[in-house]
Amino acid sequence: MASFQAIILKLKSYWAERGCIIQEPYDLEVGAGTMCPETFLRVLGPKPYRVAYVQPSRRPADGRYGENPNRLYKHQQLQVILKPSPGDVIEQYLGSLEAIGIDLKQHDIKFEEDNWESPTLGAWGIGWQVMLDGLEVTQFTYFQQCGGIDLELVPAELTYGLERLTAFLQVKDSVYDIEWAPGFSYGDVRFQDELQFSVYNFEMADVEALWKLFALHEGEAARLLAAYPKSPEKQRFPLLPAYDQVLKCSNLFNTLDSRGAISVTERVGVIQRVRKLAVGVAQAWVDQQEAAQ
Amino acid sequence: MSLPFLLEIGTEEIPDWMIQGALTSLEQHLANLNIRARTDATPRRLVARAERLPERLPDIEERITGPRKTAGEKAVEGFARKQGVASSELSVEGDYYSYLRRTPGSKMIDVLAEALPAVILKITFPKTMYWTGKGGPRFIRPIRWIVALLGDEVIGFDVASVPSGMVTSGHRRLGAARFPVTIGSYEERLRENFVILPAADRCKRIEEGIAALGVRLKPDPSLLETLVYLTEYPTPVVGEFDPQFLELPEEVLITVMRHHQKYFSVEDESGHLAPRFVAVMNTNADPEGLVRRGNERVLRARFNDARFFWQTDQRKKLAGRVDDLGHVTFQAKLGSYLDKTKRVVSLVKELGGSEHAQRAALLAKCDLTTELVKEFTELQGVVGGLYARAQGEPEEVWQAIYDHYKPESMEDSIPRNAAGQMVSIADKLDTLRGCFGVGLIPTGSRDPFALRRAAQGVVKILVEARLALPLLDLLGDDSQLVSFFEDRVRFYFRDVRGFRYDEVNAAMTAGWSDLPELESRLERLARIRPTPDFEPLAASFKRIKNILRQAGFEGGPFDASLVESGPEHELFAEINRSAGQPIETVIGGLRPRVDLFFDKVLVNAPDPAIRANRLAMLHSLLEQFRTFADFSEIVTNS
């Protein structure tokens, strides 16, 4: 039986063999692998790129104090970007499932329409949720727009839900029972994490302090974005740090949301604020890349 | 000679619900080329086939006129040279030399090679993508191969850098990835590679498979259709779940199975939900039971979630959630669901709704704050009703909450009790009045708040529950809303109920505020329509209306002493006799007298007093039926 980490290693080497750079997770809190600069910024512009990385993804509202067998505050995604998407991308993807020991002749695989959209990133794409015996194991998206910009080359984005895939392979009903490494369950490694962050996000996060932090990060990102057009040396301008500030805002928004601190009416407005920054960074980034050529 | 034709557009998986529309569109574009094709599809291919296409299009003949027949030899030779023929091949038509140029018809294979790329890219889909790069062709999903054959020959062209050929692809895992086909062997070769091309055959395979499993399904034709277009080689498999989950409401279990997992629900002999389900695989068999067990595990997890939500939600009663609706936006300009709830409650009161109706209106939207509805939004209303039942609300109240989104379509039934009908009407009217008030008016196909459905629902409930509420008063003085409703009423009686359009116009012109009353007038009108005196009388009414309009007559005093004896008096007496009588009993008497009047009496009498008196009499005749129908709207053959 392949452990959680063995499955990750196999998938990484599978994609490495197909020309992907194997990146390490981004070191900031993100809600999805898509938000990492390795996806959000790299899909922009005319340069081909292939990358795969595991990204721990935080969704404060999905936390369940470690009590729900299927829902996690933080789960691990394997994010693969193939830019431009190769003609046999689906076959390559199915090959990756076979590489981790799933005999697809013995299972039922379906591609069901599921178009992905992220209002905060001004990004959307066309694609499917990939269903394996009725279980959604991957989100497959052909990016069309990112940061409000039509993409030059259309990347395929594969997002594997690693816990689900492993539970499937190990035939486990609870994510906490899957084997992470020989002798260590997922629960051994992550239970405390789930419990404590659920307590923080739902009960103890200081709403006022989070709003202040939000405003600070928003201000810093906005300050940098406002300075970019006037910058004499575009290439050394710190857009990547500006984007980090946007990611901070996004995570704070999610935390405030899970704390129940954002009314539905406010919600739309706050999403717009983050989106404005993300779109601003994307546009400046495209400009900076063009200037570098 | 005629040749068979095959076009297969090989794609990545097309969303099931878009496939039929795409095939219709493909058929139309081929019909524009005079090709009557039959089409088929699986998720990965759109296919068009035709039996007998001509090898060539007909030759084209064109007569080119040259010099006059009196022209000199040089001019004639010059003309012939220009056409590339000898003078002897010219003929004389009338006064001129001319040449009949015959261009051979194009070869069909060339015509198709030229036309098919555009045919393919013109297929309409609700949403398209690009994949070859910015500015590239758009289609529903990437095109990966194309088979295009006319007889034994490949019709050569490229679409999105994919060259046409004779190589297709089988089922993703059970079939060969690439294999050549001929038109004759096409369907059979696909089947050998685990692709059942005709949708009807896939449907049959599912139905026969289910029959062989020996289970009784809750019939679900639309799910069946979804699965037919989600698979290339469908095989049903039956799974089980823990009977303990049956303590959850059936509605919740079925929603999880149907909407989230695309499973059929299974019934026991008494029609109750059984702890089993049927999934349809896109593969040929599940000999080891792996697929069954996988699906069972997924369903178990989903049911566990639903149970968790159900139990969590029970900790706070619906009645305790009313204030929480203040945090749920209904629409930015129209406030929260709390605001809406208050408006609906007072509207229900205004309409004379019972205590139960008012209670249901107060609680109707509270389920929007529950975890279960957040997870399964399609169960809004239903969940509220189920919670209200569990929390001891009276039957009429919980049923009203449960039903208050009904009818969700013209096929759907109206709420089952009076309170539910009242809450449903008030809720929809509030939405309509609010949205129209802030300018959110549907245009063309854009109707994001589903206002057409809401208005249609109000009409259906008022008619079918026979509620004599004054609809026009409820709509207020918003003329756009009034005309929007007028269209919905007309649509309902004409398209849903099947009344003839002129009868609907005639009856509605006489008023449409009280819909059950309008319905009964329409039914009476439809009954008297075929009687022999009706249409001639209707034609006379139209004539009367025209006469009155031309005379600019809008009513005036009538003096019986001015009535001449004879036809005029006969009509006068008949009008008096028929006053206050039901229309059915008076047509026979009126018709001959009206006819005779127009035959013998001059309305436009030279004496202005007599003329005015005759106009007044005709006017009173129209007025007599004003509240029943405007007969001049009836389209007659005469």
What does the model show?
The complex is a heterodimer of chains A (293) and B (638). With 293 residues, chain A is α+β, with helices and mostly antiparallel strands. Chain A folds into 2 domains: 4-200, Bira Bifunctional Protein, Domain 2 (BirA Bifunctional Protein, domain 2), CATH 3.30.930.10; 205-291, Class II aaRS and biotin synthetases, domain 2 (Methane Monooxygenase Hydroxylase, Chain G, domain 1, Up-down Bundle), CATH 1.20.58.180. Chain A has 8 helices and 11 strands. Chain A has helices spanning 4-17, 37-40, 89-99, 162-170, 186-204, 207-227, 239-258, 264-291; strands at 21-22, 49-58, 74-83, 109-113, 116-118, 123-132, 135-146, 149-150, 156-161, 179-181, 184-185. In chain A, strand 6 (123-132) and strand 7 form a beta hairpin. In chain A, helix 6 runs antiparallel to helix 7, helix 6 runs parallel beside helix 8 (264-291) and helix 7 (239-258) runs antiparallel to helix 8. Chain A is globular. The mean pLDDT of chain A is 94. With 638 residues, chain B is an alpha+beta fold. Chain B folds into 5 domains: 2-56 and 108-192, Alpha-Beta Plaits; 60-103, Alpha-Beta Plaits, CATH 3.30.70; 199-314, no CATH class; 322-523, Hypothetical protein af1432, CATH 1.10.3210; 532-633, Isoleucyl-tRNA Synthetase, Domain 1 (Orthogonal Bundle), CATH 1.10.730. Helices cover 46% and strands 15% of the residues of chain B. Chain B is built from 23 helices and 20 strands. In chain B, the strands form 6 sheets. In chain B, strands 1, 2, 3, 9, 10, 11 and 12 form a 7-stranded mixed sheet that branches. Chain B has a 4-stranded antiparallel sheet with strand order 15-17-18-16, with helices on both faces. Chain B has a 3-stranded antiparallel sheet with strand order 4-6-5. The two termini of chain B are 53 Å apart. The model of chain B has no long low-confidence stretch (mean pLDDT 93). The A-B interface holds A 68-71, 84-85, 87, 90-91, 94, 104-113, 115, 125-126, 128, 132-135, 142, 144, 150-154, 168, 171, 173, 263-265 and B 12-13, 15-17, 43, 127, 129-134, 141-142, 144, 172-174, 177, 230-231, 261, 263, 279, 281-283, 286, 288, 290-291, 293-295, 297-301, 304-305, 308, 327-329, 332, 336.
